[in-house]
Amino acid sequence: MIPPFVRIAEGVPRVLPPGIHWASLAEVEARFALNARRRWLFEGVAMVATALRAAGCRIMYLNGSYVTEKEQPEDFDGCWNARGVSAAMLDPVLLDFADGRAAQKRKFRGEMFIVTPRDRAGRTMLSFFQIDKLTGRPKGIVGIRLLASRGRVP
After folding, report:
1. pLDDT, tens digit (0-9, with 9 covering 90-100), for 89-101
2. From its phi and psi, is residue 54 left (phi > 0), alpha (psi between -120 and 50) or beta?
């Protein structure tokens, strides 16, 4: 279930409360595809989910202004767990990070990263996405299980 938005600071769009909020694609669509722009972006989210699922990806996460109260988000951001993914089956665009991920934005309307690379502070993309970039405060993201897994997948 995707909880209601919370305010973490004045002048900043409301966000999801801290944590990973698990949802199906249908729940994401019902909650966030509320106008023409958001529906168009959701089509990209669904295309990414289809491409990742076809390669054996079990989990993807959604972040960015798409999962805030912002009425007209620019795009969506997210990351995916590479465990069990077949590189041969993966759409190569999902590994193209050149030019600010321009190919991803053209094809999928958003940007997707792999969960595991760490930044200079030692954070994975998954932990990085759970911090609001404007305030530095914790915020929530949406987790989507793409395939049934044997056991828990972080």
Report:
1. 999 999 999 999 9
2. alpha
Give the contacts of 20 (CB within 8 A, at least 6 positions apart). 61, 130, 140, 141, 142, 143
Nearest residue to 29 (alpha-carbon basis) of 44, 16, 39: 39
pTM of the predicted protein model: 0.91
* Sign of the alpha-carbon torsion through 31, 47, 23, 63: negative
Strand-pair category, 59-63 with 140-145 = antiparallel
Quote helix, strand, coil % in the chain, to nearest 5: 30, 20, 50
The angle at the Cα of 124, spanning 118 to 126, to the nearest 5 degrees, equals 160
Ordered alpha helix ranges (H), the chain:
25-32, 36-54, 102-108, 125-128
Domains in the chain: boundaries: 19-145
145: phi then psi, degrees, rounded to nearest 5: -80, 120
